[in-house]
Design goal:
This protein has 15 helices and 13 strands. By secondary structure, it is of the alpha/beta class.
Length: 405
């Protein structure tokens, strides 16, 4: 399992996934870096070294050196990606045991390149799990603006895709896009993301002192506060709500490169109905999400995000709270299909404001029905058990095919 981000970092398919594979009978080795995401600073208790091994809950975790960074500098971000790729490639090619199958988690694309090299040298099948479509994501988030570089990254993507045995995608839109780009449909599998169910199950814990009380209607956004989230529109909606619904409070939980700027904007605009909470471990996030009246998802109004299902969607549904989805496309379709919330237009403060007002003024029975519908849909279609079963089937199929060959 090759992934640049892994626990204790907020990793979508980290220890929870690895532990579930072990439970299903797989022997798992994780190849990752030293934890530094999202702040770009190495976590306490770790220091950069050429190699470090840990064994956690039956999972062998191998960490290799990288350049820690996660700021707005494209050069430093590239060094972060390339340094991990170089260290990972050296380990895979020179020191790692030969696996039966390789699972590579993308982003970044450089992890896919390492996976292809390992597949070629070790002659074992490779599964690439695509969470971000490159180069589209780099353009949508402002990471690159050069058309020449955009084209180069696109060519590398196609080179990787042609050399992968199975590609796993998170949404129907991703699958349609890859097919349009020449990837055979037979090599693409759709497996929806899940969430850290155990961590989110911890509700009713102590809430931060600045978390609004139950006399307010609390809209919570939890996660990365970056450029892709385009949260200025949500702050503008908060300004509209001051006069129309004094009971509504918007709570932002997390860190990211835009956090300080957004916080300053809220202060400068005298937005007394907005609260910022620091990033917190998943074991504490569940209590905050569980105390919310509504959970908010918002991304930039971009064609790429219309085929994306933000990972927080599954977490919101799993904890059983109504979802306000301000993302078009597949994510909005999921909310409509599950009947777990309402949809607003992305980067449209008036639309977001109206959606919040409709939820704040809804009957409690209607909100409870949304909560139950989201939780039930998650368990039936999006849970860890459902997703891990899909991955296990892919791994076993590829291993069996290799044995027959």
């Amino acid at each position: 399992m090759i992934t640049q981000w892994f626990d204790p970092e907020p990793a979508l398919k980290g220890m929870v996934f690895a532990r579930e594979l072990v439970r299903r009978g797989f022997e798992v080795e994780v190849l990752t870096g030293f934890p530094n995401y999202p702040g770009g600073k190495v976590y306490p208790g770790y220091r950069i070294r050429p190699l470090q091994r840990e064994r956690i809950d039956g999972v062998e975790v191998t960490r290799v050196a990288l350049y820690p960074s996660h700021d707005q500098s494209g050069v430093r971000r590239a060094l972060n990606y390339l340094s991990f790729a170089f260290s990972a490639a050296c380990y895979v090619l020179l020191r790692a045991r030969r696996p039966d199958v390789i699972y590579a988690y993308h982003p970044p694309l450089t992890v896919g390149i390492v996976g292809v090299l390992a597949r070629w040298i070790r002659r074992v099948p490779l599964v690439l799990d695509i969470q971000d479509l490159w180069p589209d994501t780099l353009r949508a988030t402002g990471m690159i603006s050069s058309e020449r570089l955009f084209g180069l990254v696109g060519r590398v993507c196609r080179w990787v895709y042609r050399r992968v045995d199975t590609i796993v995608v998170l949404s129907p839109g991703f699958k349609r896009t890859l097919i349009a780009r020449g990837v055979p449909e037979s090599r693409i599998e759709l497996i929806y993301n899940w969430c850290d169910e155990a961590a989110l199950a911890v509700t009713g814990g102590r809430l931060p002192e600045t978390f609004p009380g139950p006399d307010r209607f609390r809209i919570v956004f939890a996660g990365n506060l970056g450029k892709a989230q385009a949260l200025d529109a949500v702050l503008d909606a908060a300004a509209m709500l001051r006069e129309r619904a004094a009971e509504v409070m918007l709570v932002f939980v997390g860190g990211g490169i835009e956090r300080d700027r957004l916080r300053k904007k809220a202060v400068d605009s005298s937005l007394t109905n907005v609260v910022f909470l620091d990033q917190m471990p998943m074991s504490e996030v569940g209590a905050v999400l569980g105390a919310a009246d509504v959970l908010l998802v918002h991304l930039r109004d971009d064609e790429l995000f219309k085929i994306t299902i933000p990972s927080k969607t599954q977490a919101y549904m799993a904890v059983g709270r109504p979802v306000l989805m301000a993302v078009s496309g597949d994510a909005a379709d999921l909310v409509r299909a599950s009947q777990c919330g309402v949809v607003a237009r992305s980067e449209d403060p008036a639309s977001i404001c109206d959606a919040i007002l409709s939820l704040a003024r809804a009957e409690r029975t209607a909100l409870s029905a949304m909560s139950d519908a989201g939780r039930d849909y998650y368990r039936a279609n999006l849970s860890l058990a459902v997703g891990a079963r899909g991955f296990a089937a892919i791994f076993e199929r590829l291993i069996a095919a290799r044995g027959r060959a």
